[in-house]
Amino acid sequence: MILEKDPEPCNQNYKGHGLSKGKEREQRASIRFKTTLVNTLMDVLRHRPGWVEVKECQEASGPRVADTSVVQREPKGSRQPGFVEGDWDFYWCDVSWLRENFDHTYMDEHVRISHFRNHYELTRKNYMVKNLKRFRKQLEREAGKLEAAKCDFFPKTFEMPCEYHLFVEEFRKNPGITWIMKPVARSQGKGIFLFRRLKDIMDWRKGTTGKKLTSSEAQPARSTVNPPGGHDARSSDDQKDEIPVENYVAQRYIENPYLIGGRKFDLRVYVLVMSYVPLRAWLYRDGFARFSNTRFTLSSIDDQYVHLTNVAVQKTSPDYHPKKGCKWMIQRFRQYLASKHGPEAVETLFSDMDNIFIRSLQSVQKVIISDKHCFELYGYDILIDQDLKPWLLEVNASPSLTASSQEDYELKTCLLEDTLHVVDMEARLTGREKRVGGFDLMWNDGPVSREEGAPDLSGMGNFVTNTHLGCVNDRKKQLRQLFRSLQSQKKASS
After folding, report:
1. CA 7 – CA 10 distance, rounded (Å)
2. What's the mean pLDDT in 233-257?
3. Which of 237, 236, 224, 271 lies closest to 117 in space, CA to CA?
4. Is the separation of the CB atoms in 375 and 273 below 8 Å?
């Protein structure tokens, strides 16, 4: 039996958020938001009309344990003036909050948070590869080898230390090639190194034997209810005396990257997922290429400024120029490639990247806990080789929102504004939109066509996916037209 109960003070264990008298899709004049990130995101949230920042409740403390026999609801007229912790409608949270609080928090229908409960199925390097391998095998069984080959966009990868013997077997088949070691749960290039000798990996094994992680690096807690095939482990709260040894992946290094001006680069592309069941994903038109600061060579595999394109690494280079930075807008990159290789080759490359985004999301569709309160802005890292083949390096659940230049600030500001437009806390959209600002709907329980109307997918002969990565982003004009049209529709129906 579900009982109703008066609201508790803000230091109670079980928290309710966004409690309101309104309907789920009722338009809202005021949105209460919360975030712990102080960067471009905070600027965007604070300047959004009708959005009000929620402050922390100083009294709240201790673990929050949900009493599932009771659902807290707010009686009419019980809202007290002023905002306290707990009274938010929108929370751009960090993953540590998610790990500690999600399973113990009641949220009203309209409330939204910025991560899926087990986002790590795609964003931890080892889980991403395991899910992609499993999905590839499934495609081969169900659709054949040609269809399965469409998943061949990630380098050969082994999880260390558990797949060490398999790795050694593969290593000895191809002596002399370069491998790269990456910690599975770190970012910004931390802990990464290249190697060509087994001795280097043996030294690493000795160095990690018995090594414990800090609590911030520990494996993420899993939900007590995991979908079939999901990864399960005890929560970090249960591991205070037994924090796991740090895991790495050993990955075949792409030795023939496409170079511009003799320098290596990768691409950062943004994908917004609003739902996994059904899968509903948007691709942003803007992104950037991140360049290394030093000319590429395989003769010095210990030089991180040659091989790692992370801005956090490159800005420590003695030759780094803060004003110039080390980024190209993706439109400039697309134009450069078209001038070198022609528009057809570029269309093929960008279509292959679309395939990466969709297949990677499909690989985790059955294991991600698709909660209607959640959305996720992913940062995809893509490497292009000399044959214009794109490779998926990793997917980030918390892509950097700190700007490294004025151009970067403008890109991330527009990206976040458009993310909020798609999330649509104000309930202005109809749900039939194929474009919102710089975002294009590329998958809606199936591929989305650029053409209007329902496409014929029987042969996929003339089908063109609704993606425009690296194309003109006239977002301001599009948003004006969109909201003007929505306003007219509302007036006509009233």
Report:
1. 9
2. 62
3. 224
4. yes
Instruction: Tell me the sheet residues that pair with 275.
Output: 280
Which residues contact residue 487 at a Cβ distance below 8 angstroms, ignoring those fewer than 6 apart?
Answer: none
CA distances to 65, 66, 90, 379 from 112, in Å: 20, 19, 5, 19
Measured at the CA of 30, the angle between CA 59 and CA 51, to 5 degrees, comes to 75
Q: Which two tokens stand for residue 356?
A: 């990466």
Quote the percentage of the chain above a pLDDT of 90: 53
CA-closest candidate to residue 111, choices 46, 54, 47, 57? 54
DSSP 302-348: T-HHHH---HHHHTTSTT--TTTTTEEEHHHHHHHHHHHH-HHHHHH
Which region among 37-46, 74-83, 458-467 has the lowest average model confidence (pLDDT)?
Answer: 74-83
Neighbours of 84 (CB within 10 A): 16
Q: What is the tens place of the pLDDT at every residue in 25-71? A: 566 678 999 998 888 999 999 999 999 998 765 333 333 333 333 33
Q: How many CB atoms lie within 10 A of CB 170?
A: 15
The DSSP code sequence of 453-474 is S----SS-SS--BS--TTS---
Task: Report the amino acid identity of residue 47.
Answer: H
Q: Cβ(465)–Cβ(450) under 8 Å?
A: yes
Joined together, the tokens standing for residue 78 give: 């019980």
User: Strands 157-160, 327-329: parallel, antiparallel or unpaired by DSSP?
Assistant: unpaired
CA gap 46, 153 in Å, rounded:
40
Q: What is the pLDDT of residue 223?
A: 44
